[in-house]
Each structure stands twice: as C-alpha cells, then as structure tokens.
Amino acid sequence: MSMKLILATAATLLSFSGMAADIDAGKAKSASCMACHGASGLSMIPMYPHLAGQQEQYLKKQLKDFRDGNRKDPVMGAMAKALSDTDIENLAAYYASLKP
Q1: Which residue of 36, 53, 59, 65 is surrounded by the most CB atoms within 10 Å?
Q2: Nearest to 83 by CA among 61, 97, 56, 63
Q3: CATH top class, domain 21-97
Q4: 88 and 63 in contact (C-beta within 8 Å)?
Q5: Could you read off the pLDDT of 56-95 as tens digits, one per residue?
Q6: Within 10 A of 35 (CB to CB), how many other CB atoms are there?
Q7: Do 40 and 29 touch, CB atoms closer than 8 A?
Q8: Contacts within 8 Å (CB) and 24+ apart, 74-81
Q9: CA dist., res. 40 & res. 18, Å (int)
Q10: Are the beta carbons of 71 and 62 closer than 8 angstroms?
Q11: What are the residue ranges spanned by the domains of the chain?
C-alpha cells in the first residue's frame, strides 16, 4: 500500500470520527476512576469491572449512558455527570489502549 493511500485513508477515517481522542488527556482524567477501577484499569475490587482493553465504542456508550441517566448507578452517575463529550472520548481511548 502506498504512503499516499495510507494517508488518504487515515484522513478519511478521522473526518468520519471527528478529532482523534487524546490518550494522554484520558490518562490524566482517569485519576478519579482509579479508586474503583485500578491504576492500570484492572480493578482489584470484584464488584467493579476492568476497563483496560475494553472496546472504545463500548466505553463511550456506557459513560454517556451513565452521564445522561440512561443507565442507572448512583456512583457512576455522579462520576459521569461532570464529563464532557471530549472527556468521554479521551477516557475511552485511554482505557481501550491499555492491555488487560
């Protein structure tokens, strides 16, 4: 595959998904997630799920559903309430980038 084709494909994909998420910003934002989901996205507490390696789209949907009240949990609802769409994009990209 030529470099020109690779760059054109990448540009097209980015135009469909908007701006690329910022993994470093997601990592910084994840500080408040660590108490329950672990410093590396691997929870040490059985009642909280591992986030490391989850699919990015899944994580985005869950966070938006908690934030918007479509999924109910008092702790996650409160945590997600303050998240912007950009925060959610960045957090999802960060956790999806981690290896379980």
Answers
A1: 59
A2: 63
A3: mainly alpha
A4: yes
A5: 999 999 999 999 999 999 999 999 999 999 999 999 999 9
A6: 11
A7: no
A8: 75/36, 79/32, 79/33
A9: 27
A10: yes
A11: 21-97
Q: Which residues contact 87 (CB under 8 A, 6 or more apart)?
A: 29
Token match 């999806």: residue? 96
Query: What type of residue is 84?
Result: S
Give the CA angle between residues 58, 99, 73 to the nearest 5°: 40
| Amino acid 33: pLDDT | 97
Residue 69 has a pLDDT of 97
Q: Are 97 and 57 in contact (CB under 8 A)?
A: no
The string of pLDDT tens digits covering residues 10-36 is 554 554 455 689 999 999 999 999 999
Structure tokens at 47: 């009642």
